[in-house]
Amino acid sequence: MTIAxxxxxxxxxLYALLTLKEQGHDIFALHAHFxxxxxxxxxxxxxxxxxxDVPFHAVDLxxxxxxxxxxxxxxxxxxxxxxxxxxxxxASMKFGALLREAxxxxxxxxxxxxYAVLEDNPLYGRTLSxxxxxxxxxxxxxxxxxxxxxxxxxxxxxxxxxxxxxxxxAERGIAPAYPSESQEICFVPNDDYRxxxxxxxxxxxxxxxxxxxxxxxxxxHNGLWQYTEGQRKGLxxxxxxxxxxxxxxxxKNVLIxxxxxxLLSTGCVVSNMNFLVAKEHWGExxxxxxRYRQLPIPVTISEQDDLLIVTYDEPQSPPASGQVCCVYDxxxxxxxxxxxxxxx
Length: 344
Hints:
Layout: E1 2-6, H1 11-22, E2 26-33, H2 39-51, E3 56-60, H3 62-78, H4 85-104, E4 109-111, E5 116-121, E6 125-130, H5 139-142, H6 147-150, E7 153-154, H7 162-172, H8 193-199, E8 208-211, E9 217-221, E10 244-249, E11 254-258, E12 265-275, E13 286-289, E14 297-304, E15 307-316, E16 324-329, E17 333-343
Parallel strand pairs: 1-2, 1-4, 2-3, 4-7, 8-11
Antiparallel strand pairs: 5-6, 6-17, 8-9, 10-11, 12-15, 12-17, 13-14, 13-16, 14-15, 16-17
Helix pairs in contact: 3-4
């Protein structure tokens, strides 16, 4: 059994590499250039792997990354939605294209530095569940990865905490090539997605009216793509009470805003569902996360054609269309994930 360890040069992938080597596995390190290839970065990561006596390979996937992650990211904003590029990258690139390249090099499995747990369940088979570090858990971002691909994955950090990993590496005197934390969206400079989209020449539409639900005009918006459901800050309008983004009317180019009393959502509609556990095995107690930092909330779920209708036990702030809805059972095993179409 040969394992490819995806290495970025950072702390997490270094620890995964070191752990599997010390456990005696047949491994090699594999770095993917998702952005334009950097010879300097490749050499630095290669030197790090050489110091650990681990074979190193690098593959250039930046054109595929552009097609599978960057272009859909831009398209979603053009259509007034809020995409989740990290979840898409995991499904299409890290456990898609990179896994494919790893297999070409002779690997049977691919290991990464994700904070999530993969275990065998007698009823579900191979399952994904939350990482033991609540601040770093990445099960939400992995919920779109198809089950067949996850079955070839290993997550050595799943039951670890970030602070312990840093301490263990420091004790051994082993340093990553790039110790700083990666930015939120790797291909967006300075995490400024607005500047990125403008620089790329995306057809983002023009400004328009900002209205209350009854049609009262309270201000102007600068383009619907710049706003997210539930947003309060940055609206640039003075009113007798704080206003929030309720929804975006793309057809009329109108941003609908309102007070907090109008903000609450009773649920959401989810499409493109990736089932990690067959629907017939889902229990009655279900929870979802519709944003990364959200604690799992109890829901009732029904099916309508190819959609999931998610109803919250208690009203919530509206989720953003285009984001991921991750479904868990009561033990926080991931049952699947899909894309939020709209709130209810």
